[in-house]
Amino acid sequence: MIDVEDLISLVRNYNPRTDEALIRRAYAYGREMHAGQYRRSGEEYFIHPVSVAAILTEQRLDDATIITALLHDTIEDTKSTYSEVERLFGHEVAELVDGVTKLTNLQLSSSETKQAENFRKLFMAMSKDLRVILVKLADRLHNMRTIKSLPHEKQVRKSHETMDIFAPLAGRMGMQWMREELEDLAFRVLNPEARNSIMRRFITLQRESGDVIQKITQDIRKELEREEVEADVFGRAKKPYSIWRKMEEKQQGFSRLSDIYGFRVITETEGDCYRVLGAIHRRWRAVPGRFKDYISQPKSNGYRSIQTTVSGRDGKRVEVQIRTRQMHEVAEAGVAAHWSYRDGVRAENPFAVDPAKWLASLTERFESAEDHDEFLEHVKLEMYTDQVFCFTPKGDVVKLPRGATPLDYAYSIHTRIGDSCVGAKVDGIRVPLWTRLKNGQSVEIITAEGQRPQATWIDIVVTGRAKAAIRKSLREEDRERYIKLGRELARVAFEHVGKKATDKALRTAARSFGLHSGAELLARLGSAELRAQDVVEALYPELATSRGDEIDASRAVVGLSPDETFARAPCCQPVPGERIVGITWRGRGVVVHAIDCPVLERFEDQPDRWIDLHWHSGKHPAVHSVGLYITIRNDAGVLGRICTLIGEQKANISDMEFVDKKPDFYRLLIQVDLRDVEHLHTVMTALEAESDVAEIERYRNPERAE
């Protein structure tokens, strides 16, 4: 355990004016409060708070934050109280310790709704003082470094929590080094086989090609010497989790993955950054689409660097970051730079984002979230995204997350422009609204009076701001339509258990969901924010769980008028449990498509033909045919076993076609009759596990559209 004098020395290195006496008192008080407590590893518990404090000294944080780290578990786990901490160490420290205690009590990995509610509380705590989250992140980092002493189940739960929440949060706050370490520590627990495989491949690669990092570092230094630029060059292999994620995203094996090395060039001036960029691009071929200038357009968390990828030695892709020393300090410290000290003076870094403004911009986008689930969706969207920079027709820059569409762009300018959007031009060319924008493109939005947001836009946009605005507009514009659809959904669901959806029953159900009225409940049902089955279960749990009657296949879809008939679209073959939409055809009724069916693009300019539909929430019969492409080994008895396996899953084969025959493999198109999407998943999982099945995928054919 680090003793108090060593800890004070760590602080004194960057803050000679530190209040040594106060830190000694806090150290002694924390040790006294935790006396007799031990960690799972058998070590004295106080080792943990001291280690957290040491992590925060690496970020050069102020005395109040260091003392908070030493005391962060006292109110929660000992006889200490808020008033005692306030009396001994002051109001600032007491508030920080109390904030960390409240965050510790949040069960962030619990059910989705509870998680969302707690996430909102987390951001409220952050808005009071961001140092609370800095202590919590350091606390999580030390716990992950020592996670091996916990039972395996708890290791997995904590690692999921770290991967889902704390690692992205660290990245969003500019602390990329912490994000990478948290991800790697969690990856070690969640997928040790994959991590070990990547480490072994690195060793093999190094044995075969020598020290690539040293060779490329020398190559870059030679170019800089030729340009007479003073700079430091550092290289490293990327973290195993980062490599694994790239392999998953690109569906490539390790041997085909090229950019597994990263290099950093640290210069003295901003001008030198661009001279280094020129030297590197003259020496090596730049990879198209992989250049980002975050110096002229900083990220919202204060990050500034030039990032480029080049085809380097032996054709290997090499990622290079170029930044000044000041930019590097911000990139390493992130938001923590606001409380960092140097020579006893708080560092005011000109490149760091103002945390108050960062939180204000974040909170502003979440204000329209009417419930905890929407809030959670918006938070995750904000934290997990990188940025693209687009230009308005006047040349102004608009920052958007990666994957953003012209609709996101429109809503980022003004809600009114987003709501009335009918089309977009990118670099002067008309494009569909679902087009993914790229860096440097110029975007022009085409609007029309009377245009209103469509329900399908929710699945097109990626920003929390756009999703919230669309939902709000849909709720306002289509409230009556949603209430009408919700009433029909409720009527069918209640009748299925022998009850009536009376106004009183709906009001009672609304209260159980924290809603103000039965009309609000119906609107949520109609907009698919609530399921009719959940409403029934809230009032009649014993009936909802005991239902056994199957839904009549001719009444499987809710949302049609009494005289309308429907048919499943052969192009996407939707099944109960999947989100659906109807397209009307004159004289032929309604054709039901899955919401992600590419054929729907053909009807985007015909909103009058779209109908909001839902599957009945009861139990469906196995009559919904779905095509599966299956590639199997050509051997005696294999086809029979596959057919038997499908039958064992209570699924019937209604048709079979040999698509391709090879000496070793057959490719089949099998039509299987299923109940719902869960039944489909069960069948596909069973087939995937069969050793004689080489490949299985769901059949989708836009050419078969109605």
Automatic annotation (TrEMBL):
CDD domains: ACT_RelA-SpoT (cd04876), HDc (cd00077), NT_Rel-Spo_like (cd05399), TGS_RSH (cd01668). GO terms for molecular function: GTP diphosphokinase activity; guanosine-3',5'-bis(diphosphate) 3'-diphosphatase activity; kinase activity. It catalyses: GTP + ATP = guanosine 3'-diphosphate 5'-triphosphate + AMP. Residues 45-144 form the HD domain. Residues 382-447 form the TGS domain. GO terms for cellular component: plasma membrane. GO terms for biological process: guanosine tetraphosphate metabolic process; nucleobase-containing small molecule interconversion; response to starvation. It holds the Pfam family RelA_SpoT. Its EC number is 2.7.6.5. InterPro entries: ACT-like_dom_sf, ACT_dom, Beta-grasp_dom_sf, HD/PDEase_dom, HD_domain, NT_sf, RelA/Spo_fam, RelA/SpoT_AH_RIS. Transmembrane segments: none annotated. Keywords: Hydrolase, Kinase, Transferase. The keyword Kinase applies. PROSITE patterns: ACT, HD, TGS. Residues 627-701 form the ACT domain. Belongs to the relA/spoT family. In eubacteria ppGpp (guanosine 3'-diphosphate 5'-diphosphate) is a mediator of the stringent response that coordinates a variety of cellular activities in response to changes in nutritional abundance. PANTHER family: BIFUNCTIONAL (P)PPGPP SYNTHASE_HYDROLASE SPOT (PTHR21262:SF36), GUANOSINE-3',5'-BIS DIPHOSPHATE 3'-PYROPHOSPHOHYDROLASE (PTHR21262). This is GTP pyrophosphokinase rsh.
